[in-house]
Amino acid sequence: MPTAPSGPLTLDAEVAAVCRRLAGSLFPWDTTRALELALLKTFCLPSISGLLARTGEFTERPRKRYDDTGLMMAELLRWGPDSAEGRAVIHRMNRIHGAYGISNHDFLYVLSTFVAEPIRWLERYGWRPLQQQERQAWFRFWDHVGALMAIQNRPASLEAMLSLNGEVEAKLFRSAPSNHRVAEATLGMLLAEWPEPLRQPLATVLRGVLDPEVLASLDWRPAPPWLARVLRAGLWGRSRLLNLRQRIWPPRRTRFYSERSTPSYGSSFQLEQLGPPALLPRLNSPRWDRAQHGAQRRIGLTGGIATGKSSVGRLLAEQGLPVLDADQFAREALAPGSAGARAVLARHGASVREVREGKGPESQSVDRAALGRIVFGDPAERAWLEQLVHPLVRQRFEAELQRLADRPVVVLMIPLLFEAGLEGLCSEVWLVDCDPEQQLGRLIARDGLEVSEAGARIAAQWPLERKRSLADLVIDNRASPGALASAVAQALRSGPGLPPGAGPQGAAP
């Protein structure tokens, strides 16, 4: 299947205007219903429902999770993804998603539902179907959102996107306990405001619009055939009446979901309120403010695996700058006999135990290569390990930064800086960048991995494309070591103003 290129930096203004009119003026009710259906259909993939069940966001807080999703989607459509408001939403979504092990395949399917379901819903129940140019605009809008989210291998056309959507549903929809749990919690939330005696009948009615494969995947009984026919006829009749009304009284204002009162936030909301409660402190953490906290320049150094972070770190260390290495701190967190090592061994047992003689701490050692094979092949296990190690690494950073408080410049080398939400420790973020082919080749040569294993390790991190939009400065590592050294020197000179005495010569103690 052909795939979309990385996409233009901005979306055509006419495309954004068409989609704003569709979602806000012409079909606001239908768009909301279609996106609700899209959300429900994502629960039919066990990989998605399993993650949602583990986080508890849809089983413990379904109303907030539902409203957060609806508000962010509405704000993208209302303002456009390239507006200041839209970019803020994209940035927040990227940071939220980065906290979890979400595969590109799952991202692709969810993106395809946002394209496909409104088109299908309006064909079935709208007061008119979308015109061809409107369908194309709708596809281009969500494809651009996908580009800003750095979703890879996006289909290059509307037809290919619809085909991908259908293929996933035909091949991967299947029953799983997590599907049913998350769907039941969502249905309960939607019916919570109705009187108790009406909830079960209404649940039966809602199932009347779902296709058999969706019902089977969610372990829901189908509605009686006569009820499904009545419901669909009612929706069709509603569209005919609305068609007449639209002709006589064209809408004069927008009615986006984000312009209405919501149960979670009332009549108004702030973007800072949206997201899982456990992540809100990280999501709302500002960068280290040199004016407020002191003159120290804190350079966050990040990139993808094998893009050249260590090379840049060595160049900075040669200038006398202290370089704090997250990988070193992570190794310490799993040192023999440590609490982290004990937790890993308790979870994985002999499969990750490094055989050593004796009964002391050395006997409680983790085979890091074996652990790597597990976590890079299983997003859930990778998320568990990160939740164990990241807080320990952050504690080490905070202790070291306190020890180095009198140094004018400190470098924090953190491969998963964005994924772990550690931007708040830095006054600026540098990204070491290269081409995907270079990254893959360097990783294979460095670690002696097979192509598939190297690809899995690269895919386990955020794509470089997503990180570029969040970094303050991008260091190009596509050329020679000499060119890299020049780029690092230039970055030190051209970054935010250095404190007196700092810099390549004055940085050493």
Polypeptide structure, described:
This protein starts with 12 loop residues before the first helix and ends in a 15-residue tail after the last helix. Residues 497-509 have low confidence and may be disordered. A five-stranded parallel β-sheet has the order 2-3-1-4-5, with helices on both faces. It has three domains: 13-261, no CATH class; 286-322 and 404-509, P-loop containing nucleotide triphosphate hydrolases (Rossmann fold), CATH 3.40.50; 329-390, no CATH class. Helix 3 crosses helix 9 (177-191). It has helices at residues 13-26, 28-42, 46-55, 62-79, 84-98, 104-125, 132-148, 158-172, 177-191, 196-207, 212-218, 225-248, 280-283, 290-293, 309-318, 326-333, 339-348, 368-375, 379-403, 436-447, 451-459, 464-468, 481-494; strands at 297-303, 323-325, 409-413, 428-433, 473-476. The chain is globular. The chain is mainly alpha-helical and 509 residues long.
